[in-house]
Amino acid sequence: MAETDAAKVAFLGLGVMGGPMAGHLAGAGRSVTVYNRTAAKALAWVARYGGQAKPTPFEAVEDADFVMMCVGNDDDVRSVALGPTGAIAGMKAGSILIDHTTASADVARELAAACAERSLGFVDAPVSGGQAGAENGVLTVMCGCDDPEDFERARLAVGPYARACERLGAAGAGQLTKMVNQICIAGVVQGL
């Protein structure tokens, strides 16, 4: 059995993207614990997919091998990942934080440094494909990661909802690539 098949996973953020992504992990047989700032969303997710919900990011990540996060913006990332009740404080050594939020390269580098201080892996991994891609499990994941081995482990972990997952450089590179992607899409839309 592969490491990722038996992995314990925490998923933080169950919006229109995160909810279906976490659902694909549960559907692949992963043990999934969820957290959402609106507790009712977490409880509704558990009622649909199983697993368990926890009231704080710190509690949700206990014993998780992989922690996926998909929240709104830089401030949301910091509030969920950092601080005494944040995910990073609760993660076990050797686990990996995979941030799917479309945020800044600066916050990605900030999280990479915070993770490195605690012997945690970090991958900034924004996604493209929209809500339909999340629901159908065919997202494109653009990754930045300082450690190629951590990236390989993360790539396998996100497999249930990723059509493509590529490392594009060090921490922050995923966010920069997503920014270029968005500019290209805007240019095409403007051209049409």
Which strand-content bin applies to the residues? 15-25%
Shape: globular
CATH topology: Rossmann fold
CA-based gyration radius? 15 Å
Number of helices: 9
Characterize the largest beta sheet: strand count, sense, and whether it forms a barrel: 6 strands, parallel
The assigned structural class equals alpha/beta
Estimate the helix proportion, in percent: 40-55%
What is the helix/strand order?
A: EHEHEHEHHEHEEHEHEH
Biggest sheet, strands in spatial order? 3-2-1-4-5-6
List low-confidence stretches.
Answer: none
Instruction: State the distance separating the first and last CA atoms.
Output: 49 Å
Mean pLDDT: 95
- CATH architecture grouping: 3-Layer(aba) Sandwich
CATH class: Alpha Beta
> What is the count of β-strands?
9
Structure overview:
- By secondary structure, the chain is an alpha/beta fold.
- It has a single domain, classed as Rossmann fold.
- It is 45% helix and 19% strand.
- It has a 6-stranded parallel sheet with strand order 3-2-1-4-5-6, with helices on both faces. The protein has a 3-stranded mixed sheet with strand order 7-8-9.
- Helix 8 links the parallel strand 8 and strand 9.
- Helix 1 runs parallel beside helix 7.
- The relative contact order is 0.14.
- The mean pLDDT is 95.
